[in-house]
Structures are given as structure tokens and as C-alpha cells.
Amino acid sequence: MALLQSLAACAATPVENGPTEYLDEKTAATVTTVRRPIIFARERRERAANTRDYVTLAAAAVNRSGTITYVLIAYVWSTVDMRGAPSADTAETLAVAADDRRIRFSLEGTRAQDQGIALPVHAPPNQNSVPNVYRTDLATLRFISAARRVAVQVGADDTAPVYELWDDEREALASFVKFMNGEK
Fold first, then answer.
1. Are 3 and 126 in contact (CB under 8 A)?
2. pLDDT confidence of 82, banded at 50, 70, 90?
3. Considering the entire predicted model, what is its pTM?
């Protein structure tokens, strides 16, 4: 019985981490996303106890008639309010510090729909959060998923606040990369 339970747990793991895929009816693109996003946070004790600002980071692939583009979708949000948080203007650049590399991403367009994604992808509970879309590739996503240490900065300035890993879903990102690469 224990062996059967172990086998069932092993068989369920890839599905639990595997990506989701849907046809976006507004853009006619097939969108594949990570099952769960990676969430980063920074403490904001100057506003209130246990207050944090967050960055939700989700990978997606957009397939338009066989042409696949890879993007990172980022939301900057807070549990209280966005005063003092980076504005949409400073979200033009996102930096991911992964191990010894600092990977900079530039805002790809003004709207996620312009990139083929009309439905919100892992939007945070805050209804005012705007998705920022950054173009990337599978090699970069693979590197981030395998990194020992990952953090995020929103904005081009090296002194921008650092958001530390809060909800580590790099396994879901690794599963997404394997799926998009044709691996099982």
C-alpha cells in the first residue's frame, strides 16, 4: 500500500507543476503559462506591521500561427496600498538577480493584449495591478529556474529596492521550460 501511495505521488508531481494552456479568444493565440507564479516581497514596516510590497512573476509562451514568443509577466502590488511602491513608469525595466547574473528585461509593450495575452495571467488579488510584459527566451527561464538564489528589482536604477523570494515556485517554472522544450 505504501509503495502504491509513493508511486501515485510521483506520478502526480509533474501534473501539479505542469503548465496550463488555453486559446485566447480575443487574440487567437495559444497561451501556455506556468502553473504557479514566483512571488517576491520586500518588507514595508514604515507603513504598518507585517506590510509588504510584492512582485508576481509568471512565464508564458504565446503561439501565434506557429511563431512562439516567450514572456515574463510581472505585477507590482501591495497588501495595503501602493504609496511608495514603484510606479508603472519605473516598471519599464525589471532586473532578476539569479546567482551571479543580473538579467535586465525591458517592457515589451503597453498592454499584455498587444503580446497576445488578453486574459490576466496569475494576477494578484489587487484589482488595480497592471501586467508588465517582458520578452525573454527558454535559456534564460531555465537559468532562473535552476538558480540557487533569485531576487528582483523593479526599475533601471541599481539602487532600486530588492524584492526577495517569498513564494518559491521555481519547480513550476522548470516544468514549464521542459514542456516548451519538448521534454517530459
1. no
2. low
3. 0.84
